[in-house]
Amino acid sequence: MPYDFTDQVALITGSGGGLGRAHALAFARRGAAVVINDLGGARDGGGSRDGGLLEEGTAQTAAEKVVQEIIDRGGKAISNGGNVTSETDMQAMVDQTLSAFGRVDILVNNAGILRDKTFTKMELADFEMVMNVHLMGSVLATRAVIPAMQAQEFGRIVMTTSSSGLYGNFGQSNYGAAKLGILGLTNTLKLELFKFGIRVNALAPVAATRMTDDIIPPQMLALLTPESVSPAVLYLCGKDAPTGEIITAGAGTFARAKIMESEGLFLGLDATPEMIAEHWEKLSDMTTAKTYRQGSDQSQKFITNAFENMV
Ligand code: NAI
Question: What is the pTM of this model?
Fold first, then answer.
């Protein structure tokens, strides 16, 4: 069964609540040993140890509670209170995982915070903090697990992106930038890690969690269960997982998102803005749009078009 995770080890950042907890319970139910990482912070990240705003002694409570839930249901789990923005903490998390379970097959980069404000009113510190937790947090956790995954010649990494990064959301320039940055990371890692048996994909979820409880109307929140999103993560971690894909998931609907480009139109090396305006309809026609496996495939299109039209 490709979605049986017995003898596999899944590490999920920010899994002390919300979506991460739902993913952890889903993996544990299908046999995985799970590492519950969470520093137990507030929604805006004010709980980070560096920020010093966390109440003494609460740092691991959220993670430990989820561990207990898993153990009570007959599963295997350990907790880790590391901060995803700390390289030392992420290395320690992987070391702890390897000494407890001997391997790490799955990493779900899920930890996140929100600091919403319109761009011009936003403090730069809030921009940087959100970039740091989402983007650098995903970078640091991923770097820490790669050596073990390479040695095993097997790994599944799921990044957590967002519709905010894919399409934009008012008041979320920091969050959207970080979430689209995560897709840039995914697009390159899918190329670099494939030969090691490591597949890297992204999830764009929508769920009722503390992150959305004051953003989404209450009658919609009831449908948006975190548990309804987790099957997408399990799919991306199966033996036959794709790589470089984006799955969107919410309230029982699953879809694929893609960055696409129109075929375009060769206007010549001496093209003018007036020509672009004149031909906009044709060159922007998305009915024959394509996606590319890597950036150089797009360059190839430009060169081929030029050759075909000029030579
Ligand atoms: P949440 O706030 O319930 O969960 C995030 C968890 O990450 C919290 O338990 C928090 O303590 C932990 N965390 C925060 N900073 C951390 C750090 N530096 N180190 C370790 N742990 C840290 O929120 P939710 O909704 O479950 O979010 C999970 C992921 O899904 C996030 O990446 C979020 O951006 C993403 N997402 C959620 C959406 C939604 O509709 N809920 C929509 C799109 C994306």
Answer: 0.95
Return the best residue to mutate from 11, 15, 19, 133 for the ligand 1 pocket (most ligand atoms within 8 A of CB): 19
Q: Are 15 and 93 in contact (CB under 8 A)?
A: no
Structural domain spans, the chain: 9-257, 273-310
- Nearest one of 172, 63, 47 to 122, comparing CA atoms: 172
How high is the mean pLDDT of the chain? 94
* Domain 9-257: top CATH class: alpha beta
CA angle 161, 207, 175 (to 5 degrees): 35
pLDDT, tens digit, 9 for 90 and up, residues 204-261: 999 999 888 888 888 888 999 999 999 999 999 999 999 999 999 999 999 999 999 9
In single-letter form, the type of residue at position 198 comes to I
Question: What size, in residues, is the chain?
Answer: 311
User: What are the structure tokens assigned to 8, written together?
Assistant: 């596999």
Q: How many whole angstroms from 82 Cα to the centroid of ligand 1?
A: 14
3-state SS track over 276-296: HHHHHHHHCCHHHCECCCCHH
Ligand 1 atom nearest residue 208's Cα: 41
| Whole-number Cα distances in Å, 126 to 54, 173, 189, 208 | 18, 10, 27, 23
Return d(Cα 202, Cα 206) in angstroms, integer.
Answer: 13
